[in-house]
Amino acid sequence: MRATPLADTTAFAPYVVHPLIAVAFDQQIPKKGDQRQMEPWQRIGTYAAGLALETAGLKGKADLLAHTDMIVAAGGGERDLGVDQALLSSLSQSENAAALLNERLMRDLRPTLFLAQLSNLLAGNIAIVHGVSGSSRTFMGEEAASIDAARIALARIASGQSDIALIGAAHNGERSDLLILYEFGDYNLKDKFAPVWARTEKSGFALGSAGAIATFPVLPGVDALTILAETDDSGANARAARACGNRWAAAEREVIIATPRVAGDMNDALQS
To answer: How far is CA 236 from CA 21, 134, 213, 217, 249, in A?
Structure first.
């Protein structure tokens, strides 16, 4: 049986969001100082990158990390809602809104706030925390940006331009400012969660918080690879598993792709 996605209909009511589960960020970002200077989307992505490197057996191996290329995607940084609200309130009462706007922007916004908006800070934080020091490329945006990150990483590997690539994206969907922007276009899913294909009467999308970072290394000394795939309606997981398997097979490694006979992943199969 396929698990029901976690959906929150109260925190940002009437909008539906997929919240981030409880995450022990200390496990992958041990320094509190590093965590404090990151916004949530940066912590999510840096944590996911640590998990990916750990799973691939790369974590802490400076010789391999030195030529691990990084291609990541992220949206813009989070706004300071307190400043936004105070500014809008004061503008509505001002006789010279343009002058007041210029004054408040210079006074209330810290220079570092602009730097915190840049999506390439995700790559920077991953490099600092995990020691990934190969080439780096960052895409800013949402779905299309993450697709480009994966497409270009796979193309570089296929052409021989890259041996090991850390790719992925991070997004924090639990943001009032984003929900407001999408509501202007009536894009948000409201009131009740429903699967995508069941949203016939009340269409819209539910923002979600997630970090997805994948590594694509063919490691020396590893002669066989077993991929635990999952079944999904779109077939995206099966395509990714085949692409990874083909890459390792081309390097003359033994590859086994295990796919569950029930919908979902291996955990669903074990529990069914």
So the answer is: 23, 28, 15, 20, 20
